[in-house]
Amino acid sequence: MVTGKSASRKSNKIFLFFTIAVTYASNKQKWNTIIWEPSPSKPSSFVEAFAGGGFGVSPKTKTKKKANKKKKKQENLSGIMETMTTKKKESEDSKKPKLDRFGLPIASIDNIFPTSPESTTIVPVDALNGNCTLSEIQDCLKDHVDLGDLTRVFDNEGLAKIPNQNGSIMRLRLLHRSPPVLTLDNFLTEDECQDIKKVAEKGSSTHRVGSATFKGALSTRTSTSWFCHYGDLPVLIAKAHHILGIPLETMEEPQIVRYKGGEEFSWHYDEVPPPQLPNGGQRVATLLVYLTDVPAWKGGGTAFRDLKESATSSSSLVMQPQMGSALLFFPSFADGSPDDRTLHKSEILKGDNTDDDHKWIVQMWTHQREYQASLPIGNSNKAARDIMADAGANLGYN
User: Which residue from 103, 168, 304, 338 lies 20 to 30 Å from 285 (Cα-Cα)?
Assistant: First the structure.
């Protein structure tokens, strides 16, 4: 409700502004001089009132507002500087090596498995899935274990001269030139793969271990392995001997390995540690055969960190499991000196852990000299000579 005094004041204000407006309109030049040009008789506050502050806003109030605005700006700037300093400190801390509870650097892949020097010779194949002749393959193997005259088994295109029992043709291909990495398509038939899996599933004559690797190894292995008697895998040892020229006496006991979903074997070398060298010397060849198919989207491939799939590719060399295919590479040179370029891993397998979802392989190494098996108890490569000869004859190799 408007009182009499309030209405009177409001009327006076309206009349005052109306009078000023009329006066200003009748003589703009004079009023511009009065408003915009300060004089001793007209303080600057009068000009400020007309120039934007309006009557009733004191200079002290404006000065205080400016001071508050300046203070707020300084506070914002201080906050930005503090944030930048914090981020810089965090960045510097992230570059420092992480320490364990004893103050020692935590081991990482970079210091456990240092990258190869730039001067290291690494020669990929010219093109992915490119064909190399048998003579080219043999030339790549000259510094490694002697596989004998491969022409007795393969033609110059790498195709086997003797077909498998199911009619499929084995083929030798070069995946990497130096260090040499080979694959043998159709090394085992589907029936032969199933027979090997049954040896592990039966388990009566095998030695099962949860994580088979050397004592003190820093790699992570979460698969399950079965050490097998040579005589339980006659086709494997017969093909390794007759096709690849590997002497039975230098063969390490075969291992069947199963990977469930989420399991892996992280980066590692296949070379044996010095305390193990008296038994056969160094490992000079790795023969790994895939017993199941694993699509690329599920992982589970055999990956080589320092090798590329071709000279025109930046992708690392990865062998994806295909039933019956074999991977052959060489952990050391012929003289037993380790070849660190063959650092590799079994990628983590994705899956739901159903029986049909597992990755199965069988692997075997060959040594420089005669090797004495230790598992299972009573295992002997020499004792399997007749069994190997019979299997070779059935396969048509004798």
Answer: 168
| Helices 234-242/385-395 angle, 10° precision | 80
Interatomic CA distance for residues 343 and 233, integer angstroms? 28
In the chain (398 residues long), the average pLDDT of successive 10-residue segments reads 56 62 62 53 46 49 67 72 72 64 62 84 85 93 94 96 97 97 98 97 85 58 94 98 97 97 93 95 98 96 97 95 98 97 96 83 98 96 97 94
Domain boundaries, the chain: 4-57, 123-395
Residue type, 25: A
Q: Which of 327, 326, 325, 266 is nearest to 299 (CA)?
A: 266
CA distance 141 to 193: 28
Class of domain 123-395: mainly beta
Instruction: Give dist(CA 358, CA 352) in Å, integer.
Output: 9
CB atoms within 10 A of CB 378: 9
Alpha-carbon distance of 377 to 206, in angstroms, equals 9
Measured distance CA(3)–CA(385) in Å, rounded: 123
For residues 316 and 343, what is the distance between their CA atoms, to the nearest angstrom? 12
CA–CA distances in Å: residue 273 to residues 59, 276, 329, 330, 369 = 87, 6, 18, 16, 16
